[in-house]
């Protein structure tokens, strides 16, 4: 009769996923990365303020999605590998190098891991760049979206993206896209984290729920 | 990885599709793509019309199993015309939507189709109703449906404005459908739009090469 009281709540046995929305866009002179802040285990939100934008180096960041543990581990490993690499080379690493390190892990362990990282940053050779590493592929793109919430904003980003947007326009683009996705995706929500990386370094910003833009039905 | 799965688990011919209906100042526009596919790997028809006229000023469009949708709309058409004769006046859009809802709700175990109903009537003017898979009926200013609709939620949320003009609304609907066709592999072909107002019904077809192009095309 009292067996039910000792059974564990469902969220303790569910895998923790950063079912999420992540986005990165390059502009002349840098990149803007953005993410939501919800981490879910099944139907429970286990962390509502997680920052999914993780630094790989001073001017290279990655955005995490998929299984929280897998994504964080990949980011930590690549962070270490990049430190070693940049000491060996004697200068700041290229964004492409960071993305390649992420891709190598994603591809080699593609059966065991389920995480997708978008890598964005600035380096002296190529300026602002965005790379996707989904499933072990490496591809440079003008912008990238990922995570469960990204399905809902494909139409929006296709329609709104233009080449040659300024830094400010890119930041607005990222905030708008994140807000729209958070409004529709059950696994995305909370606050929006934005990181703007350029030759001077990285600027992190957190936009609270009530400061996000509102749309027609709100 | 969180992959968003589209609910195209139907066997047989499915209208994995994109459909929408939008109210504007003085009327409604109902629209869809034109692709019918079997299992997502074979296009069985490139130019199917998914916009069914159930009465003079009332249209509905179908998403889900094509066979179910055709059977239901046939029955709904009959019931609606009978109702209209008994009432001696053109039927309300809500009546059409309710008939579809009854059929979907009472047969929810066997059926796999969702509907959007849009039209004009004298009592409330232009209206848009959506009947979901389980038989829920909801009235909205605009609505989207079908497998391709997931990709345009962000776009329509951002771009819809109440009381648009006819031209703005046509552009909005065409853009939304083009964006969905661009991302959903089971939506495609041409864009069918029907503009319904007090004065009548106008069918607009936008062929593939006239669709708006976006940054990567």
UniProtKB/TrEMBL annotation, chain A:
An annotated Gene Ontology molecular function: threonine-type endopeptidase activity
Cellular component terms per the entry's GO annotation: cytoplasm; nucleus; proteasome core complex
Oligomeric form and interacting partners:
Component of the proteasome complex.
Pfam families registered for this protein in UniProt: Proteasome
Function, as annotated: The proteasome is a multicatalytic proteinase complex which is characterized by its ability to cleave peptides with Arg, Phe, Tyr, Leu, and Glu adjacent to the leaving group at neutral or slightly basic pH. The proteasome has an ATP-dependent proteolytic activity. This subunit is involved in antigen processing to generate class I binding peptides.
Residues the record marks as active site: 20 (nucleophile)
What are the entry keywords?
Answer: Cytoplasm, Hydrolase, Immunity, Nucleus, Protease, Proteasome, Threonine protease, Zymogen
Under the heading SUPFAM superfamilies, the entry gives:
N-terminal nucleophile aminohydrolases (Ntn hydrolases)
Family membership noted in the UniProt record: Belongs to the peptidase T1B family.
Q: What is the lineage of its organism?
A: Eukaryota, Metazoa, Chordata, Craniata, Vertebrata
Keyword Protease among UniProt keywords: yes
Task: Indicate the principal place this protein occupies in or around the cell.
Answer: cytoplasm
Q: What is this protein called?
A: Proteasome subunit beta
Q: Which reaction does it catalyse?
A: Cleavage of peptide bonds with very broad specificity
Instruction: List localization entries.
Output: Cytoplasm; Nucleus
Q: Which GO terms describe its biological process?
A: immune system process; proteolysis involved in protein catabolic process
UniProtKB/TrEMBL annotation, chain B:
UniProt-annotated catalytic positions: 17 (nucleophile)
Instruction: List the molecular function annotations (GO) for this entry.
Output: threonine-type endopeptidase activity
| Keywords, ordered alphabetically | Cytoplasm, Hydrolase, Nucleus, Protease, Proteasome, Threonine protease
Q: Cite the SUPFAM superfamilies for this sequence.
A: N-terminal nucleophile aminohydrolases (Ntn hydrolases) (SSF56235)
Q: Which Pfam families match?
A: Proteasome (PF00227)
Q: Which Gene Ontology terms describe the biological processes this protein takes part in?
A: proteolysis involved in protein catabolic process
Q: Taking the first listed entry, what is the main subcellular location of this protein, grouped into a coarse class?
A: cytoplasm
* Subcellular location as annotated: Cytoplasm; Nucleus
InterPro entries (UniProt xref): Ntn_hydrolases_N, Pept_T1A_subB, Proteasome_bsu_CS, Proteasome_sua/b, Proteasome_suB-type
Q: Which PROSITE patterns match?
A: PROTEASOME_BETA_1, PROTEASOME_BETA_2
**Reaction equations catalysed:** Cleavage of peptide bonds with very broad specificity
GO cellular component terms, alphabetically, are: cytoplasm; nucleus; proteasome core complex, beta-subunit complex
The UniProt family comment states: Belongs to the peptidase T1B family.
Assembly and binders: The 26S proteasome consists of a 20S proteasome core and two 19S regulatory subunits. The 20S proteasome core is composed of 28 subunits that are arranged in four stacked rings, resulting in a barrel-shaped structure. The two end rings are each formed by seven alpha subunits, and the two central rings are each formed by seven beta subunits. The catalytic chamber with the active sites is on the inside of the barrel. Component of the proteasome complex.
Function field: Component of the proteasome, a multicatalytic proteinase complex which is characterized by its ability to cleave peptides with Arg, Phe, Tyr, Leu, and Glu adjacent to the leaving group at neutral or slightly basic pH. The proteasome has an ATP-dependent proteolytic activity. The proteasome is a multicatalytic proteinase complex which is characterized by its ability to cleave peptides with Arg, Phe, Tyr, Leu, and Glu adjacent to the leaving group at neutral or slightly basic pH. The proteasome has an ATP-dependent proteolytic activity. This subunit is involved in antigen processing to generate class I binding peptides.
Protein name, entry field: Proteasome subunit beta
Q: Tell me which species this is from.
A: Chanos chanos (Milkfish)
């Amino acid at each position: 009769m009292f067996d039910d009281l000792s059974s564990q709540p469902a969220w303790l046995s569910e895998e923790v996923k950063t079912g999420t929305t992540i986005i990165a866009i390059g502009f002349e002179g840098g990149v803007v990365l953005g993410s939501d802040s919800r981490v879910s285990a099944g139907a429970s939100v286990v962390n509502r303020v997680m920052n999914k934008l993780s630094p790989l180096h001073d001017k290279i960041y990655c955005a995490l999605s998929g299984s929280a543990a897998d994504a964080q581990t990949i980011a930590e490993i690549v962070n270490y590998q990049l430190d070693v690499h940049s000491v060996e080379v004697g200068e700041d690493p290229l964004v492409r190098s960071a993305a390649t390190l992420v891709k190598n892990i994603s591809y080699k362990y593609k059966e065991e891991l389920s995480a997708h990282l978008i890598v964005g940053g600035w380096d002296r050779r190529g300026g602002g760049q965005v790379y996707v590493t989904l499933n072990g592929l490496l591809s440079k793109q003008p912008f990238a979206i990922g995570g469960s919430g990204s399905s809902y904003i494909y139409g929006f980003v296709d329609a709104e993206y233009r080449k040659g947007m300024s830094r400010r326009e890119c930041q607005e683009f990222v905030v708008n896209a994140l807000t729209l996705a958070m409004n529709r995706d059950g696994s995305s929500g909370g606050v929006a984290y934005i990181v703007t990386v350029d030759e001077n370094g990285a600027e992190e910003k957190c936009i609270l729920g009530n400061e996000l833009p509102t749309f027609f039905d709100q | 990885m969180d992959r968003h799965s589209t609910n195209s688990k139907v066997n047989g011919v499915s209208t994995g599709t994109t459909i929408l209906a939008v109210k504007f100042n003085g009327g409604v526009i109902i629209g869809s793509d034109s692709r019918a596919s079997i299992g997502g790997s074979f296009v069985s028809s490139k130019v199917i019309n998914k916009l069914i006229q159930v009465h003079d000023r009332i249209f509905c469009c179908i998403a889900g199993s094509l066979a179910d949708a055709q059977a239901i709309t046939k029955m709904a058409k009959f019931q609606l015309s009978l109702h209209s004769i008994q009432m001696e006046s053109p039927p309300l859009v809500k009546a059409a939507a309710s008939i579809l809802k009854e059929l979907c709700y009472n047969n929810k175990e066997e059926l796999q189709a969702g509907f959007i109903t849009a039209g004009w009537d004298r009592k409330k003017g232009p209206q848009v109703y959506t009947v979901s898979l389980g038989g829920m009926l909801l009235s909205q200013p605009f609505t989207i449906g079908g497998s391709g609709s997931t990709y345009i939620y962000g776009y329509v949320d951002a771009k819809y404005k109440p009381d648009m003009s006819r031209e703005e609304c046509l552009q909005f609907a065409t853009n939304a459908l083009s964006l969905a066709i661009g991302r959903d592999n089971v939506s495609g072909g041409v864009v069918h739009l029907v503009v319904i107002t007090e004065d009548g019904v106008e069918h607009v077809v936008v062929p593939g090469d006239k669709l708006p192009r976006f940054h990567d095309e």
